[in-house]
Structure formats: C-alpha cells, structure tokens
Amino acid sequence: MGPGTADVGVFGGSGFYRFLDDVTEVNVDTPYGPTSAPISIGQVGERTVAFLPRHGAQHQFSPHLVPYRANVWALHSLGVTNVFGPCASGSLQGHVVPGSFVVPDQLVDRTHGRPDTFFDGPVVHHVTFADPYDDALRQVAIAACRIENVEVHDGGTIVAVQGPRFSTRAESRWFGGNGWEVINMTQHPEAVLCREAGLRYAAIALITDFDAGLDGQDIPAVTQEDVLAFFHANLETVRRVLFRALAAPLPKDRLEAGPGF
C-alpha cells in the first residue's frame, strides 16, 4: 500500500473521534462532496487502516445529515476492502445489557429522506441485501470480543431510526415487540452503501443504554449526555476489540459491486 491508500476502514461512532496516533490525514474529493472529516491513515501491525469519524471530528453531523455516500465512496477510492462500523446503540431486549456488544446480522430501516444509494440514475442497480452484514467479517469481530473477554451477542437485528431524537416509549415497545435487539441511528444507509460499493462491512454495536420502552421495566428517558458519557467510559474497550480484529486474518477480496465501482 502506498501513501493515501488503505486496506481496512473504520467508521468511528458517537464519542469515537480519534483512533490511531501516528497518522497521515487525507482529504478525498468525492462526487458527493466532502467526507465527514479528513481521513486518518495509519498502521496497525502490517495493516494500513483508514479511520473516519462518521459524525465529524467535532460531532457536527446529525445522524440524518452524515455524508454517508461521500464517506463510503472515499474509503472505496483508497482501496479499502473491509470496513468495521463501531456504533453507540440502545438495547430493546432485557438480556442485551449495557456494556455488552452486539455484532448484528440483520437490519431494519426506519429512516426516511436520506440519500441512500449510489444509483439514482441514469444507471440503475438493485443490490442484493438479504444479508446486510458480511459474515466473515462478523466472525472476526465476534472472535475479537471474546478474546478480549467482552460480552458479545452473535447476531441480532438492529433497527435504524431517523433521529436525531430518541424513540417514544410506544415506538420503543413496538421495536422490541418485533423481536429486534438493537436500536441505532446510523446503520442505514452506511451498510447498504458499503454493499453497493463492494465493501465488506460489519457493525460492532456497543450497548450504551436500555431504550425507553423496554417491556415491563421502568426505564428512564435516554439522554444524549448519558449515551456519550457511557461510550466514552467504554472507549478503551472498543479500541481493544478493534485492534484485535484488525490483527486477525481478513478477507482479501471485495464483494461484487454495482456498476462504476
């Protein structure tokens, strides 16, 4: 890999704005405007890693305004094959406790109005998305959690909501009543755009709170301050898991991409 290239990407979530210490910052021009922040490129062993905080270096992008297309396009242009997406998330089920991790295998989209495809036309492409997350990369993330003695749930459904507000109690009960485990604001369209670009993608959800409508429990309302504080308190654990995953054998081939990639 030469300067300005990488083979693995990491999208930092809420409270996760820096990852590597010795980095080169790269600005990538994209057809979709600037990325959330300059991309930091550094080494983890022999692996070249591109890190990009999806909300921006100062958390200036609300979930519905993150420039997802620019972010994914930029990682693709740098040569990235595999992408890990750590994200702060809420629990919709009593057995998924704060402090644990979920590596989801399914996604439900409840967002609206976000630019969520590279194929607005005139080129049309319908991506296969039955399995939103790459299983090989998921297994790497799960193994990394277990080696680091982090409680991890293998699989689960994450529902992506529009934000920036948190759910009402009724919405939360509905989501949990469907059997979904995790709630988050950024997994759509990040996951589907990676799939369109042929990038392997796995989310790593750190559970920061029980969502407000957890059935049968008196759960206080979720606040932004509490979520960010919890994520910050557990940031070193997230970093350890990521370093462990980045040191593991990773797939070398991209997935089949849509036209133009």
Short descriptors:
261 residues; alpha/beta; 6 helices; globular
Tell me about this structure.
α3 (169-177) links the parallel β9 (157-161) and β10 (182-184). This protein has one domain: Nucleoside phosphorylase domain (Rossmann fold). The mean pLDDT is 92. With 261 residues, it is of the alpha/beta class. The longest helix has 13 residues, at 135-147. The protein is 25% helix and 23% strand.
User: Which CATH class is shown?
Assistant: Alpha Beta
* Average pLDDT for all residues: 92
First-last Cα distance: 19 Å
Stretches where pLDDT is under 50 for at least 5 consecutive residues are: none
Q: What structural class do helix, strand and pairing data support?
A: alpha/beta
% residues in beta strands: 15-25%
Number of continuous helical runs: 6
- Relevant CATH superfamily: Nucleoside phosphorylase domain
State the total count of DSSP E strands: 11
Instruction: Indicate the CATH architecture.
Output: 3-Layer(aba) Sandwich
| Main pleated sheet | 11 strands, mixed
CATH fold annotation: Rossmann fold
**Shape from CA axes?**
globular
Secondary-structure map with pairings?
Elements: E1 8-12, E2 24-26, E3 39-44, E4 47-53, H1 68-77, E5 82-91, E6 101-103, E7 106-110, H2 135-147, E8 152-154, E9 157-161, H3 169-177, E10 182-184, H4 187-196, E11 200-210, H5 224-233, H6 235-247
Parallel strand pairs: 1-4, 1-5, 5-11, 6-8, 7-9, 9-10
Antiparallel strand pairs: 2-3, 3-4, 5-10, 6-11
Helix pairs in contact: 1-4, 2-6
Outline of this structure?
With 261 residues, this protein is α/β, with parallel strands linked by helices.
